[in-house]
């Protein structure tokens, strides 16, 4: 894959009732095993999925070396540009803003701008706080409180950026739905002794996201 043809990766039927725009997390590209598995799982349920990369990751792919994430305004500018590109390609089709970790947090901030066409938000492993710093959660919680769209957070029970005990101690607004993945960490990977697998949690994530999208768009799926 070259930088030129990596602007968007598409999965799923072109005549889908909704399009999911899927952003990656801070450290993995749009074609990581997680992103690919989730896109395939959603496509199998009749959804169109557009994966994209933030600019720093595209530069890293181009061979400029490992780079840290861009600043928040730059990340949001990229999100806005992709949203407009997809909206123009699918006029009138409901759009769902989705992302893993950092990508999901940026989707939450973008949704607060009431972008045209957006009907819901999905955060896969929402980073409620930096690792090891639950006391620094205020800003990220505030973004959730101001969320104007229906939102789904899919979270591993052992997520180091917001585990079940921490999240359940918060009061989230009613438009936000939580779904817990058994024994999952930030990547949804469970311990071997848990009785479940990473693949099972990834599939469960795709299933619940598809269910959420059907609910917010009023579509029946496949």
Q: Could you provide a short overview of the structure?
A:
By secondary structure, this protein is of the alpha/beta class. Helices cover 37% and strands 17% of the residues. Helix 6 links the parallel strand 6 (151-156) and strand 7 (176-181).
Give a written overview of the molecule.
- This protein has a single domain, classed as Alpha/Beta hydrolase fold, catalytic domain (Rossmann fold, 3-Layer(aba) Sandwich), CATH 3.40.50.1820.
- The protein has helices at residues 33-43, 55-64, 72-89, 102-111, 138-145, 164-168, 198-217; strands at 9-11, 19-23, 48-52, 95-100, 118-124, 151-156, 176-181.
- The chain is globular, with a radius of gyration of 16 Å.
- The two termini are 30 Å apart.
- Helix 5 (138-145) links the parallel strand 5 and strand 6 (151-156).
- 37% of the residues lie in helices and 17% in strands.
- It is α/β, with parallel strands linked by helices and 222 residues long.
- A 7-stranded mixed β-sheet has the order 1-3-2-4-5-6-7, with helices on both faces.
Structural domains: how many:
1
Proportion of residues in helical segments: 25-40%
Order of strands in the sheet with most strands: 1-3-2-4-5-6-7
Could you give a short account of the major beta sheet? 7 strands, mixed
Q: How much beta, percentage-wise?
A: 15-25%
- Unreliable spans are 1-6
Radius of gyration, Cα only, in angstroms? 16 Å
Give the topology string: H per helix, E per strand: EEHEHHEHEHEHEH
User: So, CATH architecture?
Assistant: 3-Layer(aba) Sandwich
SS summary, helix count: 7
Spell out the CATH superfamily: Alpha/Beta hydrolase fold, catalytic domain
In the CATH scheme, what's the topology name? Rossmann fold
């Amino acid at each position: 894959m070259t930088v030129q043809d990596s602007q968007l990766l598409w999965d799923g039927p072109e005549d889908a009732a909704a399009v999911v725009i899927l952003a990656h997390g801070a450290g993995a590209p749009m074609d990581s095993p997680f992103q690919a598995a989730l896109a395939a799982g959603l496509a199998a349920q009749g959804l169109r999925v557009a994966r994209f990369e933030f600019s720093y990751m595209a530069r890293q792919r181009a061979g400029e070396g490992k780079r840290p994430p861009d600043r928040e305004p730059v990340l949001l500018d990229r999100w806005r540009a992709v949203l407009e590109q997809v909206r123009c390609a699918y006029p009138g089709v409901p759009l769902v803003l989705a992302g893993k970790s950092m990508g999901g947090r940026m989707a939450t901030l973008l949704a607060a701008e009431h972008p045209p066409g957006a009907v819901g938000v999905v955060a896969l492993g929402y980073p409620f706080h930096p690792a090891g710093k639950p006391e620094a959660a205020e800003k990220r919680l505030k973004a959730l409180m101001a969320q104007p769209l229906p939102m789904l957070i899919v979270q591993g029970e052992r997520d180091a950026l917001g585990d079940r005990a921490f999240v359940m101690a918060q009061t989230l607004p009613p438009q936000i739905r939580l779904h817990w993945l058994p024994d999952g960490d930030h990547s949804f990977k469970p311990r071997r002794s848990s009785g479940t697998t990473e693949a099972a949690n990834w599939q469960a994530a795709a299933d619940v996201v598809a269910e959420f999208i059907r609910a917010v768009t009023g579509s029946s799926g496949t």
